Amino acid sequence: MSKREVLIIGAGPAGLTAALELVRAGFKPIVIDADSQVGGISKTINFEGNRMDLGGHRFFSKSDWVMDWWQQILPVETEESTKQTANLAYQGQQRPFMPNRYAQSSDGDRVMLIRSRLSRIYYLRRFFDYPVKLNANTIRNLGLSRMAKIGVSYAAARMAPIKFEQTLEDFLINRFGRELFQTFFKDYTEKVWGVPCSDISAEWGAQRIKGLSITKALLHAARQVLGSGSAGSKAVETSLIEQFMYPKLGPGQLWEVVAEMVEKGGGQVFLNQRAMRIHRDEFRITGIDALDTISGNVRRINCTNLISTIPVKELMENMQPAAPSALLSIARALPYRDFITVGLLVPRMFPPAGTKVDSAVGMPADNWIYIQEPDVKLGRLQIFNNWSPAMVKDHPKIFLGLEYFCTEGDELWNMPKDCLLSFAANELEKIGLIKASEVESGTVIKVPKAYPAYFGAYDRMPELRTYFSQFSNLFLVGRNGMHRYNNQDHSMVSAKLAVECIVDPAMNRGAIWDVNVEQDYQEEK
Ligand SMILES: Cc1cc2nc3c(=O)[nH]c(=O)nc-3n(C[C@H](O)[C@H](O)[C@H](O)COP(=O)(O)OP(=O)(O)OC[C@H]3O[C@@H](n4cnc5c(N)ncnc54)[C@H](O)[C@@H]3O)c2cc1C
After folding, report:
1. C-beta 251 within 6 A of ligand 1
2. Which of 233, 249, 265 is the last residue of a domain?
3. Phi and psi for 443 in degrees, rounded to 5?
4. For residue 489, which atom of ligand 1 is closest to its CA?
5. For ligand 1, is residue 34 a contact (CB within 6 Å)?
6. Is there a single domain that holds both residue 199 and residue 280?
7. What is the pLDDT of residues 148-207, one digit of tens each?
8. Are residues 446 and 340 in the same domain?
9. What integer is the mean pLDDT of 38-63?
10. Which of 337, 497, 523, 525 to mutate to test the pocket of ligand 1 (most atoms within 8 A of CB)?
11. Test site for ligand 1: of 298, 309, 480, 499, most ligand atoms within 8 A of the Cβ
C-alpha cells in the first residue's frame, strides 16, 4: 500500500489526530478541509486581535492517552512552585494529574494553561450555582415559597412516578419533580434542542443526564461541607470538573500546531477544499473530487484509504455511484442543531448587585453562564477573558460570546449580520448585563451542524453503520463523522483507532464505534 494515499476529509480534532498518528506511523496523509482554517468546531476565531472559542472548549479527558497527547503538543505552563501540586480537581474529587511536560520559557504563547471553571445559571436576573446546589444562595434567589413547591413536587414525583417514561420530560420529572424541571430544565433544554422536552425520547435523558440526581447532589453538598472527597477516582460526572487545561490562545491554537507538525512530517493539509463526490467501486473507496472553494476548480484525489470526519448525511449524499435510496433517505433525515456565536467587545458589565466581580469593569468570574431567562433567545454567554486572558487584546475590555442555538434556515440563522449584532446586544441589555449602546465592535460566526441530534432518524443510524462497515477502506470518525455527541477526546480516540486499523488491517474496526458509548461524559449537561 502506498503510504501517501491515505486521505482524510476534515481538519478538525479527529482529522488532524488521524493525520499526526499516520505521520508518526510513517505515512504521508493528505488532509482536506472546506474551511479556511484548521480546527473544525474547535477552531479559534481571531476578531481584530480578540479571540473567540465557539462553545468554550475544556481540555479534559478521562483518557490518559488524550491528556498526554495534548501535552506533547502544548506543554503545561505552571509556576515552578506549583509543579508538584498541579492537578485537575472536580468538586469533592480529584483526577491524579501530573503534567508530564512543562513549558520552556522560550515558547511564550505555545502553552496550555490550567484554568478554573466557573459557570453559573442566570435566572430571575440572578446567578445560581451550576450544578444547582441546595445552599443559602439558591434559597435566597428562589424564595421560600418556590422552594417549598419544589420540595413538594419532588416528593410527589418520588411517591408517584410516571409509570412509563417515554419522553425526556417524563424522565426529568421523575428524577427532579415537575417544579424543578420547569424551573431549571425545561426552557434551557428547549432553547438548545428547539423541540419540546415532551418530543425528545427518555432514552436520550438516560444517556446524557445519567448519574445526576437529587440524592447525589445532596451527598455531594454534604461531602463539600465535611471536606471529604475521595481522591483519585476517575468515575466522576464531568459536570463537576473544576479545573481543566486550555491552550493560551484558544482551542484552535493546539490544532494549528498539530497541522504544522503533520506538514513537517511529510503530510499535506489543504484548506478551502470541499469534498464533493466520493467515488466507490462497489464497497471500496477509490478517491474523491475536491472543489477548490476559491478558484472553483475541481480535482480528483485518489486514495487507498479514506478517513471521513464530515457529517454522515453529507458522506452518504456524495457517494458515486449513489448509495441505495432507502439508506440515502435515512441519512437525509438525520437531525442536527446549529449554532451562532455573536462576539461583542464591551467596556464593562452590570451583574446583579452583590455579585462578586473580577475587576473594576464589573466582569463576573464565570467562563460561561447558562441563560435560563425565558424572555430572551440567548442560550449561553461566554466570557473569553476568563478562559484565557490572552484571548483579549486590550484589557480591561471584555470580549463576550453570545450563543444561540438554532436550525439552519430558521429566522435567527437567516438574520443578517448587523441585525444579529444589535439583536444580541439588546437581549443582553434586556436581562441587565450590558448597555447595548456601549458595544464597541462585534462579529457573528455561524456553525452549521454543531450538534448531531438524537431524535428523528437517529435511531436508524445502525442501518447506515452496517452499510458503511462493508467498505474495507472507509473509516468514519469524530463527532458528525459518527453522528455521535463526541467531545474532542472521543473524536481523537476514534481517529487513533482508525489509524491503528489502517496500519494493521487485522485490528477490530468495530472498536471505533465503542468509543463514547457510555454517553455519560459530555460538554453540556
Ligand atoms: C457548543 C460546543 C461546545 C463544546 N465544548 C467542548 C468542550 O468543552 N470540550 C471538548 O473536548 N469538546 C467540546 N465540544 C466538541 C468539539 O467541538 C468536537 O468534539 C470536535 O470539534 C469534533 O471534532 P471533529 O474533527 O470530529 O469534527 P469538526 O470539529 O466538526 O471538524 C470537521 C471538519 O470537517 C470539515 N468538513 C465538513 N464537511 C466537509 C467537506 N465536505 N469537505 C471538506 N471538509 C469538510 C469542516 O470544515 C470541519 O473543519 C464542543 C462542541 C460544541 C458545539
Report:
1. no
2. 249
3. -145, 165
4. 11
5. yes
6. no
7. 999 999 999 999 999 998 999 999 999 899 999 998 888 888 888 888 999 888 877 776
8. yes
9. 95
10. 523
11. 309
The finding on whether 341 has its CB within 6 A of some atom of ligand 1 is: no
Q: Is residue 383 part of a domain?
A: yes
Residues 447 and 468 placed together within one structural domain of the fold: no
330 plus 364 within the same structural domain? no
Whether residues 340 and 445 fall in one domain? yes
Residue 243 phi/psi, 5-degree rounding, is: -135, 150
Ligand 1 close to Cβ of residue 331 (< 6 A): no
Q: Which residue in this structure is represented by grid cell 464531568?
A: 238
Q: Are 13 and 493 in contact (CB under 8 A)?
A: no
Which residues sit opposite 30 in a β-bridge? 7, 268
**Is 345 in contact with 469 (CB distance < 8 Å)?**
no
pLDDT at 279: 98
Ligand 1 atom having least distance to the Cα of 276: 41
Q: Which of 38, 18, 47 is nearest to 252 (CA)?
A: 38
Question: What are 486-514's pLDDT values in tens digits?
Answer: 999 999 999 999 999 999 999 999 999 99
Instruction: Name the domain count of the chain.
Output: 4
The response to whether residue 498 sits with its C-beta less than 6 Å from ligand 1 reads no
Same domain, 340 and 362: yes
As beta bridge partners, residue 443 has 343
338 C-beta closer than 6 A to ligand 1:
no
Kindly state whether residues 10 and 101 are assigned to the same domain: no
Host domain of residue 131: 127-224
Cell 498541579 found at:
86
Q: Model pTM?
A: 0.90
The verdict on 325 and 473 lying in the same domain is: yes
Question: Is the CB of residue 55 below 6 angstroms from any atom belonging to ligand 1?
Answer: yes
